[in-house]
Amino acid sequence: HHHQQQQQVLDSHTITSKSAAGSAGSPAEVILVTVAYCPTVSSGAGAIVQVDSSTGNWSVRGRFMWPSEVVFGCVFDYDPAVEYDDESELLYFDFTEDSGAIVVVDAQKAHVRWIMGSKAPFFTGFVSMQYTKGALIGLTPTVTQSGFCDDGCFGYGSMSVPTGEYARTAILPFKAVTDDAHAYDATGHRYYAQASYDLRSSPCAPTQSDDCLLTLHSVTGELIHAVYTPYVIYDYGKIGNGSDVILAFLEGDTPRLCSGFAFATVNVTSGEAEVVACIDRSVVIEEGEWLSSFSADDTLFATASGNTEKPNPQLLVVDTHTGKAVLNSVLPGLAKALGANMGLFDLWSADFIKQG
């Protein structure tokens, strides 16, 4: 990953706060988590688990086996890009890099709905993607025979669901893109993502490794705008109706930003970031800060990670106005309930879901 990982020790107890449920009587938000685990040393399973964002109480919706032609043996060697579509309740796991397929899981019934092996011989897998109107759109590594992309760059394209037909609509002059982090404005037809190593003669950033925020036309993939951003965005809130301001979860070293993670409003045109709240110093994000989502109204933020590389799993929910933890849970008992070999599991997605 293009993301720096931070690992520190966290107390192994669950803390909950009463204010978490928001205004009195309103139902708590529910987070849908995909757990990847190995029932035996050589098999790979998944489970869809829902977690109450204020109490941390969890329940297993269902479990399934990953298709053996896509996931060989245990799941821990895999790190798929993931997209969740709230309307259809379908989860898209892109394993193209490993085995040339995208696995679509029905989150309601917890079973594999489709395996999409791309029909395009040069499709290399999405690093960030969005489901919209019967297709996945997004960014994928590519290379051309001549021109600026002859040593690799990123393409933008669209894949039909469930046929897997893929069409590249644009080639972008950047050699690196932040994985698993994008924003989509359906009404304004915009797709936003950060990229670096600008191949143009006058690059958007002071140095090659610095990130720029790209504004792309979501239908054509045309690069509309690129602006230097001295911070890394791990997740984006909602944006719509052609607005140019978005709430983001980011990390940066400019003096006005916090000394670690922050929630800030980002102007997608100017690149200006205005801090809303620093993540409270008592809050430690174990790893995988990009594996996250904002609630529908952007008031809560959740991030999750498993325990395959550290002692404890973590589901962390933070209030975006204060930066304080609303829930910090190790999901006690989950590994045992699933029968995870050696008590280990990865978390591959965490999404706030519509209630009712």
Structural classification: mainly beta
Regarding quaternary structure, what we see is single chain
The description of the largest β-sheet is: 5 strands, antiparallel
Tell me what portion of residues adopts beta-strand conformation.
35-45%
Q: Roughly how many Å apart are the termini?
A: 36 Å
How do the helices and strands follow one another from N- to C-terminus?
Answer: EEEEEEHEEEEEEEEEEEEEEEEEEEHE
Runs in which pLDDT lies below 50 for 5 or more consecutive residues are: 1-25
**How many DSSP helices?**
2
What is the number of beta strands? 26
Rg, nearest Å: 20 Å
Helix fraction, binned, reads under 10%
Q: Give the overall pLDDT as a whole number.
A: 88
Q: What's the shape?
A: globular
Strand order of the largest sheet: 1-25-24-23-22
Structure description:
This protein is 3% helix and 45% strand. It is built from two helices and 26 strands. It has helices at residues 96-99, 334-338, and strands spanning 15-16, 30-37, 45-52, 58-65, 81-85, 90-94, 102-106, 111-116, 128-132, 135-142, 153-160, 166-172, 174-177, 183-185, 190-198, 212-217, 223-228, 231-236, 245-252, 261-267, 273-278, 292-294, 300-305, 314-319, 325-329, 345-353. The chain has 356 residues and is mainly β. The radius of gyration is 20 Å and the shape is globular. The longest helix is centred in the C-terminal third of the chain and has 5 residues, at 334-338.
